[in-house]
Amino acid sequence: MIKEEGKTTLRKKILGIRDSLDKEGRRQKDDMIKTRLYSLNELLGAGCIMFFASFKTEPNTFPMIEQALAMKKTVILPRVNREKHILEAYKVNTLNGLKLGYMGILEPDSDLSEPVNGAAIDLIVLPGAAFDRAGGRLGYGGGYYDGFISALGKRPCLVAICYREQVISEVPVESHDVRVDKIVTDYEVIDVNG
After folding, report:
1. Whole-model pTM?
2. Could you state, in order of their start, the residue ranges of all structural domains in the chain?
3. I need a labelling partner for 26 at 20 to 30 A (CA). Which of 18, 34, 162, 181 fits?
């Protein structure tokens, strides 16, 4: 078993690098990530896409979500169920119905959004602290996405988005950690399986 303190140290280091990127530089990188993401055949062919509501210095997903809504894609956002320690999937038709949730992250309002069966999801856009070219993903330590994806009836295409500074030589992974299929950065698209 990998020591959690090693993951914690690596997570803190990479997030420190991400946090140090200047705001204007991040904005330009966000535009490049969005362009690369929307060049993927997997995304263009997906009918149902799960995004995440970006938080702090994560790549800005809100323009990506707006574009998917404009393309008439079914857009899903996660909501943390703290009692069960799981992610729940909700369909959103607009970003106006989001409210502050777990850790101050915007989430669908369960009164205004429709819960969906995760098996309907064709593609998931994932956040994370660090990634490697073999699809290894170091999340934020809660295990929410690993648990959510493992519980799905079918595996959707998993696409991580991050800044190139977050791609490292090797991410420490354990048997329960879910690997991604593609990594989209401001610099390139990494096809893990190709």
Report:
1. 0.94
2. 4-187
3. 181
